[in-house]
Amino acid sequence: MLRESLDTPDSEFVCQVATFLTILMIEGVYSTEVYSWRSHFKGAAALVSKMLHGRDWTQSSDAWVISQSLALSLEIAQTGHIDSARHAGPTGMLLDALSTRSDFGYTIGSPRAALKALSQLQRVDKDPNGQNNLEVEIFDALRSLSSMQGEDTGHGSRLHNERSQTNGRLDYLAQLHSRMFLNAAIIYLKRLGPGVTPSQVSTYTSSVLNDMSTFLDMDAGSISLWPVFVAAVEACVPSERDMVRRWFEFSSRLGIENRIQARQIIEMVWQTRDSVASETGCSVAETIVDWTTAQEVLGIDILLL
Question: CA nearest 185: which of 222, 153, 217?
Fold first, then answer.
């Protein structure tokens, strides 16, 4: 269906992208076939190139919103362990073009700066010629994101500007979710560097998980998987792991397959870290375990959407 849509000159752009996103979500989020979604991700290059050439997102508000959803999905997909170096460039170019608007990222509940930093660092990390600059790029990105802590990074005013009575709650939830993404992005970027232990990101891990718990306390619905997962694999303190287990219980009721996969990976990381710490006599919080190794052992290729 998607191939036919791409080959039809007069097809509506929004329908093309919506078709791709629907397939990606079905196979990457709900399907038990753990590798099937990746083939669609690899096939996205033609769609992205077409979009960059025609600047189709300028056609309408709907076109921009769905283009944003595509760019965000592709960026998050690249945070997995499967090599996607040849897709990072075009995807990053699309994100650069779309992120000129201040509300970029609102459909996934993330501040624009966090997504731009992730995109830039992924391009450097996946570029063999860019490895020498990786440490400098990480430092600059972390300095920029850290300066945003405490700011209002939510998109509540855009989304709810006509709902005066419920503005307070909705804006607060938007702020919580945005802050989760910001702190998870800091964790992710720090972990790109060598030898970073859970203790070195513990402040950000605690912040994400506390905000997640508040979100659940407020019965605010589903939370984006990416920030919770990035923090959960670094959780070492029993109370923080209990917060994650509470999220496990909530997510299991949703019946979403990639949440089940996330639980398997997170629990394996915890078990491995505890075991290695016990064997070596090191603190659990000083024991590094790469979650991508755990998912390889489990035979999972998770889409963190």
Answer: 153
